[in-house]
Amino acid sequence: MLTAITQSLLAVIIICLTAFYFFSKHRYGYWKKRGVPQVEEPVLFLGNLSFLMRKSFFDAVYDWTKKYKDEYFGMYFGWTPALIVNNSELAKHVLVKDYDSFQNRFSYSGLDDDPLGSLNLFSVKNPIWTQMRNEISPMFTSARLKGFANLMNSNSAELVRKVQTDFIDNNEPVDFKKLFLMYTSDTVAYTVFGIRVSALKEGMSPLWYITCNMLKWSFWRGLEFTMIFFMPVIAAIFKFKFFSKEATEYVKKLFWDVVNERKKTGLTNDTDLVNLLLKLKDNLKLPAESGTELADNLMLAQAAVFILGSIETSSTTLSYCIHELSHHPEQQEKLYQEVSKALKESGKDILDYNELLELKYLTACIHETLRKYPPVQLLDRACNNTFKWKDLTIESGTPVYVNILGIHYDEEKYPQPDEWRPERFINSSDNDNHDFSFLPFGEGPRFCIGKRYGMTQIRCALAQLITKYRFESDSEYKVVSDPYSVLLTPKYDTKTKIFARS
């Protein structure tokens, strides 16, 4: 009897393993059958993501970019066949020309389990996305940005002061990444919640507390983010969250504390995001059965994603720009001369929004930093209608990733792409995507809505720092990126020596 049971179990196991083998062989042959170039052989279960938590996405995508020069190539994220786009023309179709076939992101968005992660402007699907986008766009008019620039200049002055007292006076090298996180969290505190606080001055603030929780990259948080963006089926099974539990709860508390205080005092702030979101809630056209919870979660989700996007990407870009300037003294001097000349001509101590926009070399330094170090390397879209381009057919349901790093490192467009050369962008404007060869903020209907806000935040800080200090590197030129972070961020402190200008 026991032998018969054992034989039956063995037969079942053999059948299952055989079926699994043929399923894997069939699944991992998807791209070859379609004549699409395919990267190295996928690993069981992980596909081409076997580097996870050992190598950063920036380094992995950089390696693919150097190895695979085709217009596009196939990969497997887990079991899912994914198309990687290196070609600017195809990217133009995916992001703009054929937007109707690529309306949504592929990333996981579990509304029931993670409303803040699924309803924010970055993740939310159509048709809610279109309505949200239209309602939030007025937050970033030129008039508002001019007002924000005044605040950013004030916070930049505080940044300059902290560099002097904490590092110049103590003859210590600076870890600019932490300082820039503080600076950006101070500007976002007012932009989102209308509260004037200063982590740079006080060492702590409500937004700095949220930042420390939201941007604390550990193995677990890195794994959650990776699954959300690249293996959404796994993210759904384990109910992974876009924002940490601590950050989510604190965003909720701070948001409702501000709202309740305004109701109690009758005071309001027409310039911040909270005020705009409260108006948005009144204007939203949601299904009658959704109740107030969906509207509340939509407001909270926009506040949360604005904090993440505005603080992390701007602070990282500032860090890498200072790092490059510290290794390029000639370019640093050229930038110093440009800003100093503008200040002399204006007769002021600080340049305003319009004056900063006129600084062509400052813009070139920022754009070249964003080319070489794009915070997001792969821009995801889910194909919702079968799409054809040349000999390529993309089937409905296939995730498509525009390889921003691959496009930014195209040697035909950017000779010697590993070198940092601001002169590539000397006549560049913030609206110029250079025929889809410059895409740090994405492009098309889903481009980053906070692009001009982020650029203003970076300009204000750099303009004030470069006129007060000279930078010399105290670390290796190559910056090791954090393998736990999906967004580009340094793994170690990038120490910079600073010297006060006379």
Task: Write up what this structure looks like.
The chain is of the alpha+beta class and 502 residues long. 54% of the residues lie in helices and 8% in strands. Strands 1-2-7-4 form a four-stranded mixed sheet. Helix 7 packs parallel to helix 20 (451-468) and helix 14 (273-283) runs antiparallel to helix 15. The longest helix is centred in the middle third of the chain and has 37 residues, at 291-327. The mean pLDDT is 88. Its EC number is 1.14.14.1. Its main location: endoplasmic reticulum.
- Secondary-structure element order, as H and E? HHHEEHHHHEHHHHHHHHHHHEEEEHHEE
Proportion of residues in helical segments:
40-55%
* Overall CATH class: Mainly Alpha
Arithmetic mean pLDDT: 88
CATH third-level topology: Cytochrome p450
Strand content: 5-15%
| CATH 2nd-level architecture | Orthogonal Bundle
Over all CA atoms, what is the radius of gyration?
24 Å
Subcellular location: Endoplasmic reticulum membrane; Microsome membrane
Keywords: Endoplasmic reticulum, Heme, Iron, Membrane, Metal-binding, Microsome, Monooxygenase, Oxidoreductase, Transmembrane, Transmembrane helix
Protein name: unspecific monooxygenase
Membrane topology: Peripheral membrane protein
